[in-house]
């Protein structure tokens, strides 16, 4: 039986070194690999290029890596909840590449499936298209976008088994699904690591072939960026 388990986050991130490119799952603070990020912060690895929907908030998620200046370049689609991100970007301390959200997802999915490039209409006629090849299809202009090339993908799932099969839960599925398998090595951090055969094959979102390392995380905070509530009806 294939067994891709590692003991913890410290063992999972072995091989990540200065200057590498990482793809990191999550949307806002939903579905982020909390334990893996914390271990990267503790490792003091620097010069990283991080590909993620956003950079968390100032004191959580990828924002912790930004605080310690461990990220050299951020490739993201949204930066609105992180004041430190904004400060570093405006001061020139951090290189930032803003990408349309759908394009970012597709660049991950293309890498996941071994597709080197694809055409998309998103961003044509804007700064996003500068320096990129364009082509017309059926009277509409498209931009050529290349799949990401990353050393590691780090994703978070609800459940996983020894072989690396993954099941996501609710909105935490987000970017984690297309990012699994998009890097040369994929690390999966799960809330519950189960025995082989316990996962229903019909419910598996990501097959184990796309995962190289898996471990059970602990003490997930699952923070909420902006809690929105309404008064209870009488």
From TrEMBL:
<keyword id="KW-0808">Transferase</keyword>
<dbReference type="InterPro" id="IPR004163">
    <property type="entry name" value="CoA_transf_BS"/>
</dbReference>
<dbReference type="InterPro" id="IPR012792">
    <property type="entry name" value="3-oxoacid_CoA-transf_A"/>
</dbReference>
<dbReference type="GO" id="GO:0008260">
    <property type="term" value="F:succinyl-CoA:3-oxo-acid CoA-transferase activity"/>
</dbReference>
<dbReference type="InterPro" id="IPR004165">
    <property type="entry name" value="CoA_trans_fam_I"/>
</dbReference>
<dbReference type="InterPro" id="IPR037171">
    <property type="entry name" value="NagB/RpiA_transferase-like"/>
</dbReference>
<dbReference type="Pfam" id="PF01144">
    <property type="entry name" value="CoA_trans"/>
</dbReference>
<protein>
    <submittedName>
        <fullName>CoA transferase subunit A</fullName>
    </submittedName>
</protein>
């Amino acid at each position: 039986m294939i067994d891709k388990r590692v003991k913890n986050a410290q063992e999972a991130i072995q091989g990540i070194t200065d200057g590498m490119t990482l793809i990191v799952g999550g949307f806002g603070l939903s579905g982020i690999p909390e334990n893996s990020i914390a271990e990267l912060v503790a490792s003091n690895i620097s010069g990283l290029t991080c590909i993620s929907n956003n950079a968390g908030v100032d004191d959580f998620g990828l924002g912790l890596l930004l605080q310690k200046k461990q990220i050299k370049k951020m490739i993201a689609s949204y930066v609105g909840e992180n004041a430190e991100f904004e400060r570093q970007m405006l001061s020139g301390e951090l290189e930032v590449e803003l990408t349309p959200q759908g394009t970012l997802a597709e660049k991950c999915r293309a890498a996941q499936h071994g597709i080197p490039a694809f055409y998309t209409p998103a961003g044509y006629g804007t700064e996003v298209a500068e320096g990129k090849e364009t082509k017309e299809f059926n009277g509409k202009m498209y931009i050529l976008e290349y799949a990401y090339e990353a050393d590691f993908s780090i994703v978070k799932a609800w459940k996983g088994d020894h072989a690396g099969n993954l099941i996501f839960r609710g909105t935490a599925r987000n970017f984690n699904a297309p990012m699994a398998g998009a890097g040369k090595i994929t690390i999966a951090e799960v809330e519950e690591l189960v025995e082989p055969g316990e996962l229903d094959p019909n419910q598996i979102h990501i097959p184990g072939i796309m995962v190289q390392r898996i471990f059970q995380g602990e003490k997930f905070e699952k923070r909420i960026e902006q809690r929105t509530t309404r008064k209870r009806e009488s």
